[in-house]
Amino acid sequence: MENDLITLAPLAGLLLAAGAFAGIVAGLLGIGGGLVLVPVLFTILGQVGVADSVRIKVAVGTSLATIVATAWSSARAHWRQGNVDTAFLKSYGPVIVAGVLAGSAMATHLRGPLLTAIFAIVACVLAVQIALGNPDWKLGDRLPGGIGRLLIGGTIGMLSALMGIGGGTMTVPVMTMYGTSVHRAVGTAAAMGFIIGVPGALGFIAGGWGNPDLPPYSLGFVSLVGLALIVPTSAACAPFGARLALRLDRMVLRRVFAVFLAITAARMIWTLIF
């Protein structure tokens, strides 16, 4: 128990800071905190001695659990404003959930370094999209059905589970490229975050159950300490980030964040090679 507390003390302080940082960035850029939390948690867990074999899985699983805790209130707010596309949820929701379940099962069985590499590579691609994406790009007037729905929804769900994100980073650009207004896309992505987070977190809990390398006070690959400390600070700091966004150039902020994401991803790859 004493050793657990020694490990827990620095971890707690760093997790409070991580939650605050994720909340500010989410408020500034309208990007889900998972894209921030996973690389930050990956670094923090390494600093406190969590085994390389499990630290990316704990980072991803904990991020998905925080999404469950925060997405519900966000989704309710967007629902009251009429910005949730229920037709999208009914059509794409089951396919995305299937992708999440497949991605969770895959992630919990992959070797830690391979999962780290997948996160880093996809994060670099997303960094380019965040920095250079044009909201006026269009692929069509409505979202595809059939095979297109399976491919798009399955990819969103699987990558969300593999990366520990709520899917908004992918769902919003996909919806807007098919004619959905950005406000409605953001509101729908908030609701989708809850739909992704629940099966994703449960999958990581089950997949990590009984693993001897887990940090103290973990439920499978979900750190209960992380969940308890990140959610309050993230929620408290998100409004501050939103107020800052009114004063700062949003496009410049997006590019700064994209650089941060690319550098962090590159650092993750560096740890794998060296």
Automatic annotation (TrEMBL):
Its main location: membrane. GO terms for cellular component: plasma membrane. It comes from the Bacteria. InterPro entries: TM_pro_TauE-like (IPR002781). Keywords: Cell membrane, Membrane, Transmembrane, Transmembrane helix. The chain crosses the membrane at residues 32-51, 114-132, 152-174, 186-209, 221-240, 252-273. Belongs to the 4-toluene sulfonate uptake permease (TSUP) (TC 2.A.102) family. This is Probable membrane transporter protein. It comes from Magnetospirillum moscoviense.
